[in-house]
Structures are given as C-alpha cells and as structure tokens.
C-alpha cells in the first residue's frame, strides 16, 4: 500500500489541520477491505472496492512523468469525487490525484 502517494483536496483549513495531526499519530493508517484501499463517495457509500479497480477503468487518464528524484511515476487525476478513509478516526478525505511507481520496462 506504500505504492500510493495521495494528493488531497481539503474542504476547509480545519480539515487540513485535522489531517496534519492525524498523520502524526502512531496508529495512523489507511482503512482497508480485504487488504486493499477502497474508494468511497462523500456519503460514505463504497465506490470501488480497491484503488486498482478505479485505475483499471478505460476512462481513467494516467500521465507518465518523473518525481523529484527522477524516478518514473504515473500520476492519475481522478475524474470524480472519491474519498479514502483514514484511521484511527475513520473520517473520509477527498483524493484529488494519486501517484504510483511506473512499471519497469
């Protein structure tokens, strides 16, 4: 699960502060189902049982680029409002985009 690097879209400064405090907790983690990170809609309904399910859709646009260390990555900007659930508070946080390592050629 370390392969995903998320960019979040916060609805308020207070949500950003909450997120910053949360990621510094010892028990900070991504909520998983069957070992995979799912996407949710804003109302908490399950949207996709795993991130990979969303990434496999033909409409998902992936851009190959390089990170700050010149490593090949794939950046994906989401085409719908999707959220992940973070532990320990189980709040939903909107994901604007994510980066994954590019497959080795």
In short:
This protein has helices at 13-23, 51-55; strands spanning 5-8, 29-30, 39-40, 46-48, 62-66, 72-87, 91-101. With 105 residues, the protein is an alpha+beta fold.
Describe the protein.
- This protein is of the alpha+beta class.
- The protein has one domain (5-101).
- 15% of the residues lie in helices and 41% in strands.
- It is built from two helices and seven strands, in the order E-H-E-E-E-H-E-E-E.
- Strands 1, 2, 5, 6 and 7 form a five-stranded antiparallel sheet that branches. Strands 3-4 form a two-stranded antiparallel sheet.
Going by helix content, strand content and strand pairing, the class is alpha+beta
Number of domains: 1
Q: What is the percentage of strand-forming residues?
A: 35-45%
Radius of gyration: 14 Å
| Outline type | globular
Helix share bin: 10-25%
**Average pLDDT taken over every residue:** 92
Low-confidence stretches: none
Distance between the termini: 21 Å
List the helices and strands and how they pair.
Blueprint: E1 5-8, H1 13-23, E2 29-30, E3 39-40, E4 46-48, H2 51-55, E5 62-66, E6 72-87, E7 91-101
Antiparallel strand pairs: 1-7, 2-6, 3-4, 5-6, 6-7
């Amino acid at each position: 699960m370390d392969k995903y690097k998320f960019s979040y879209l916060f609805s308020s400064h207070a949500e950003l502060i909450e997120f910053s405090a949360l990621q510094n907790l010892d028990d900070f983690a991504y909520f998983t189902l069957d070992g995979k990170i799912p996407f949710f809609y804003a109302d908490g309904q399950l949207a996709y049982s795993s991130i990979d399910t969303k990434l496999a859709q033909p409409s998902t646009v992936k851009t190959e680029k390089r990170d700050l260390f010149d490593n090949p990555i794939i950046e994906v900007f989401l085409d719908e409002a999707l959220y992940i659930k973070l532990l320990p508070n189980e709040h939903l946080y909107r994901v604007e985009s994510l980066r994954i390592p590019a497959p080795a050629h």
